[in-house]
Specification:
Layout (H helix, E strand, L loop, with lengths): L4 H8 L12 E6 L6 E9 L2 E10 L2 H14 L4 H4 L4 H7 L8 H22 L8
Antiparallel strand pairs: 1-2, 2-3
Helix pairs in contact: 1-2, 2-5, 4-5
Bound molecules: FE2/S2 (inorganic) cluster.
Length: about 130
């Protein structure tokens, strides 16, 4: 089968789809080649990601990736969310077909971009990644 059960589950029943009006941070990532765009909204309180929503205009993998990424960072400290990698997303989804690997990068980039926006709005300096 092309997609793992996990991918199919998140693709058909995406978690945390939508937007957050008074988001603490909003980030976006896109891929020029396929034209897909992912937007992440974070609601942060006391350094914890209380809520996260996504809007993804793109392929099924990008939607599954967005969905699982929101689950992986919800309820976590921002410092931990900053460490989200596309590899972690891929393994949480039990992999993606080779030509869909780039879709997982969008999640990492969109989350990082939303965190940057959060730090900027909060007037904080982002911790060094590593
Ligand atoms: Fe480009 Fe999925 S095909 S994000």
């Amino acid at each position: 089968m092309l997609y793992s059960e996990k991918v199919m589950d998140h693709l058909l029943r995406p978690r945390n789809a939508g937007s957050i009006e008074d988001a603490s941070g909003v980030g976006e990532a896109g891929n020029m080649a396929c034209g897909d765009i992912m937007r992440m909204y974070l609601k942060v309180e006391d350094g914890i990601i209380e809520d996260v929503k996504f809007e993804t205009f793109g392929c099924g993998s990008a939607i599954a990736v967005s969905s699982i990424a929101t689950e992986m960072i919800k309820g976590k400290p921002v410092s931990e969310a900053a460490k989200l990698t596309n590899k972690a997303v891929l393994s949480a989804l039990d992999g993606l077909p080779k030509n869909k690997i780039h879709c997982s990068l969008l999640a990492e980039e969109a989350v990082k971009s939303a965190l940057e926006d959060y730090y900027k709005k909060a007037g904080e300096t982002p911790p060094k990644s590593g």
